[in-house]
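Q: Hi! First time doing this. I have a protein sequence and I read that you can turn it into a structure. Is that right? Here it is:
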Amino acid sequence: MTSRTHCPATQLRARNATRGAASVEAVVVLPVLIILFTSVFYVRNQVLARQAAESKARTCAWAYSMNNCSTVPPGCSAQQVSAASSIEDQLEPALSRATLGIAGPVVKNVLGPVLEAAFGQALDAKTEVPYERPGLYGGGTQNAHGAYHLACNLAPETLVDVGKDAWHALSSKF
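A: Yes, that's right. Below is the predicted 3D structure, encoded as structure tokens:
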């Protein structure tokens, strides 16, 4: 039986080659891992800022709508919340095309107020929330945008108010 003897110099070279390969792997993998971790935190901050902007826009829209779209709620600015055009303004071209001829004005006068009463005024809320961009991607601050569209709540009316409005509408016709 022959015995194999290992030369210590050969073992040392093999160990050094393994260490060298591990160092090269670390040099290649480390920048990739840094970019990956930075990207994960950047995307997280971006998503959180976008959710905060959407939540703020939704809160301002609902608070403005609950005030009958008349006063800007506290914590919101006039640039963030604005009344959109009425439904009648948006449907005017369609009503004009659909109501041609002799019956046109009658249909338009009947449909216009019904649509306005059903859908009324609307509002748009837009907000921005800043967040930091990592230095790896150029640094600085970016803005996440949030938007929300909502119909305005109608002013509360009592049965007496409805009766008065109906009486005034009928008496103005005669």
